[in-house]
Amino acid sequence: MAANDIQEGGSHYKDKAIQPWDFIHQNGIGFLAGCAIKYLARYKDKNGLVDLKKARHFIDKLIEVEQEKIDGQVLEKLNEPKIGSKVKCMNVVNTYKELSFGAIYSIVRIDVGNFYVINDKGQEVGYFKHRFQLC
User: Which of 34, 37, 99, 131 is most exposed, with the fewest beta carbons within 10 Å of its own?
Assistant: First the structure.
């Protein structure tokens, strides 16, 4: 017997044209959205307003999670090094040429994750792969 042929604790899903878990799984929907869908699909047949409030609770959490992603991307873009950015050398390992720990450089070129820098005299002195701090 298949899982869709039985239901524990009622028939509020079994009588649907498509079971919520099939819809959620076939569409690759995550946990929070899936729970909201589950409560929305059953609210008329099970707990009414209580299920609508549960669905809203999961949607509110999903909104928080998605907003945090957006806020993180915005912050990441704000902190992303750009040409002209001033950077401080935090580690001289994985650098090209001689860069001094703690020295301030300006980014003049970005190529495949390498940040090429010049010194205060305008001379290109090397590049960072990582381990720098934006000033």
Answer: 131
